[in-house]
Amino acid sequence: MKTEKTPVLLIAPETGRLSGNMGSLARYISGKSGGMGDVVTALSEGLTERGIDCHLATLNLKKRFQRESHMNEDEWRAIRYKVDPDRVHLVCSAIFEDLPSAYSGSPELNASELQCEAVSQIIKAVRAKNNGRIIIHSHDWMAGGVITAYAKSRDCPVLHTVHNVFTGCIPLDMMYRVNIKQLSRLLYFSEKGGKFCIDCQATAIKNATLINFVGKRFLDEIVNDYFSDRHIIPPSVRQEVKEKYYQGSALTIINAPSPAMYPEKCDYLIRKYGPDDDVIFAKMENLIEFQKRTGHTVDPHAILLFWPSRLDTSQKGVELLEDIASKFVIKHGDVQIAIVADGVGNDRTHEENLGRIACASGGKITYHPFNEKLSALGYAAASDVFGASLYEPCGQIDQMGNLFGATATNRDTGGYHDKIRELRLKIDGNPQDEGNGFLFRDYDSGGLWYGLERSVNFHRRPIEIRGPQIKRIMRETREKHDLKKMVSEYIAVYERLNGGKPLV
Fold it and tell me: Radius of gyration (Cα) for the chain, nearest Å?
């Protein structure tokens, strides 16, 4: 007798470009803000390829979807009215339909719309089509809150992925479509601005059957009270994570990039390439094009250090970059620094700071707001992809840099501790060639300078030494962070939630 399928419902505020396997509407849906969107895309693609009934609930960022699909209002309307959404469940609201991301406008209000619709309509609809069966996979605080509380009250197994430790506190009056009284014993309440609120991340962790982090080191840092002297990890979140950890209900699965992001498949490059090609030559061609587009002095032999992280002082350490950038390129005449990134929220302080630094550099430093095409070209042009994170749940810039044939430099914390290994060469007396980048310990300007200087020293070595190492790093990254492995790990967790039974 054939086992009945158990559907997996992914609930997330963002997604990258979806696979056509999710239905005809899926290819028009893309509203990525960060690594979470890539994971949701990769998961939906991997699950459907294996015959698993995968559904996705996400916000209908209509204007952004239209822009990324190059459609006007009439064209979009024709698709929405004529194309069966199939397994993509769009939460519609005038509150966010014109916003560029789920985190624009009022994130709490956006989250309340997502949570209310998931509880009142989407979860019930997916269960009803499958005789009550469902596994819910919620992503971060926006998809937490009343969703996970409701799921627990209805005995629906939940995996909650903690992509970051931020939480949102939603005032109860925003949740008028949900019977809060019925769920009150399962909710984690807080007070904000004189209002009684639901702490969404803490509530999600509290009610999930299992939680998973996207990096082992960051989970350990939370449990062992790292960063307790800073306002980084909300006490409510730390407390609930510890509870799950000591219950044996906290897991780690490291994010893996989709093969669609590999340099041999990236349409934004002047020359596509893979580890079996002449990588150094291909990167040089992309470097020249990147220099022309960004305003760098054109120099095919420049060592390009690429910063693709958001300009965030609370996590990413942009103030450290601002402190050393000009001095670093003056001391190291063969180095250029490129920043392609946005500020946080409505704060333009660091965009303006970096713009002034770039203007004064004489073509050695450039700053541009985030643009997907320019960022992809930057990875292909880069000698090293770097950052200066205070903490990092997972991070993806190191993986992307390595995939594109660059070394990675960052602080020895969280996901970068998990993924970056010190570059050591046999020619220097090491037993074997190993590693993919450079780590520094101290969260200060001196630490960042130290890490970058070590990277520059490597990239000054002859092509005969650098070339084989770059190819090795590209190959090893593909093997270690393979999408199929990541999907298999998630399927194993889903089957655990499914009582040990397969999903198909």
Answer: 23
Is the Cα dihedral 14, 15, 21, 24 positive or negative? positive
Q: Which residue has the tokens 């409510």?
A: 236
Residue 139 CA to residue 160 CA, distance in Å, equals 6
- Chain centroid to Cα 66, Å, comes to 22
Per-residue pLDDT of the chain (504 residues; tens, 9 = 90+): 456 889 999 999 988 877 777 877 877 887 776 678 888 888 998 899 899 999 999 999 988 888 888 888 888 888 888 887 788 999 999 999 998 888 889 999 999 999 999 999 999 999 999 999 999 999 999 999 999 999 999 999 999 999 988 899 999 999 999 999 999 999 999 998 899 999 999 999 999 999 999 999 999 999 999 999 888 999 999 999 999 999 999 999 999 888 878 999 999 999 999 999 999 999 999 999 999 999 999 999 999 999 999 999 989 999 999 999 999 999 999 999 999 999 887 789 999 999 999 999 999 999 999 888 999 999 999 999 999 999 999 988 999 999 999 999 999 999 999 999 999 999 999 999 999 999 999 999 999 999 999 999 999 999 999 999 999 999 999 999 998 899 999 999 999 999 999 988
Residue 368 pairs with which residues in a beta bridge? 340
- Rounded CA-CA distance 392/415 in Å is 6
Report d(CA 142, CA 176) in Å as an integer.
Answer: 17
Confidence (pTM):
0.90
* Both structure tokens of 353: 């700071």
β-bridge partners, 159:
137, 210
3-state SS record for 415-481: HHHHHCCECECHHHCCCCCECCEEEECCCCHHHHHHHHHHHHHHHCCCHHHHHHHHHHHHHHHHHHC
Q: Please choose, from the candidates 144, 152, 117, 310, the residue with its C-alpha nearest in 3D space to the C-alpha of residue 237.
A: 144
d(CA 213, CA 250): 8
Q: What are phi and psi of 204, to 5 degrees?
A: -65, -45
